[in-house]
């Protein structure tokens, strides 16, 4: 059976009580050299669907809008993980 990319988590958000979606996020050697050296290129990730939740505003300059998705607050560009890509875009502004 194929695994689903995104599934509701079994618990509410710790920050706001909202619905949490779980999924897999790609990771590169830039993001986590030890993990990728061990042959792991995805990590579990969770996202709160409440857009006002503080957890969606942790990374300065971007808003998290999905398990793998961010939006640049400066230019509005849609960004996707791995996080090294998100940080690289942020440095462009």
Q: Short description, anyone?
A:
This protein has about 90 residues and is of the alpha+beta class. The chain has 2 helices and 6 strands; from the N terminus they run ββαββββα.
Walk me through what this model shows.
The protein has 93 residues and is an alpha+beta fold. It has 2 helices and 6 strands; from the N terminus they run E-E-H-E-E-E-E-H. It has helices at residues 33-37, 83-91, and strands at 6-8, 20-26, 42-48, 62-64, 69-72, 78-80. The strands form 2 sheets. The protein has a 3-stranded antiparallel beta sheet with strand order 1-2-3, with no helix packed on it. It has a 3-stranded antiparallel beta sheet with strand order 4-5-6, covered by helices on one side. A hairpin with a 4-residue loop joins strand 4 (62-64) and strand 5 (69-72). The longest helix is centred in the C-terminal third of the chain and has 9 residues, at 83-91. It starts with 5 loop residues before the first strand and ends with a helix.
Secondary structure elements and pairings:
Elements: E1 6-8, E2 20-26, H1 33-37, E3 42-48, E4 62-64, E5 69-72, E6 78-80, H2 83-91
Antiparallel strand pairs: 1-2, 2-3, 4-5, 5-6
């Amino acid at each position: 059976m194929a695994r689903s990319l995104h599934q509701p988590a079994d618990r509410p958000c710790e920050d706001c009580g909202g619905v949490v979606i779980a999924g897999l996020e790609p990771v590169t050697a830039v993001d986590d050299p030890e993990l990728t050296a061990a042959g792991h290129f995805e990590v579990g990730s969770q996202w709160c669907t409440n857009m006002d939740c503080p957890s969606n505003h942790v990374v300065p300059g971007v808003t998290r809008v999905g398990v793998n998705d961010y939006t640049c607050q400066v230019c509005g560009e849609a960004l996707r993980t791995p996080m090294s890509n998100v940080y690289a875009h942020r440095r462009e502004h």
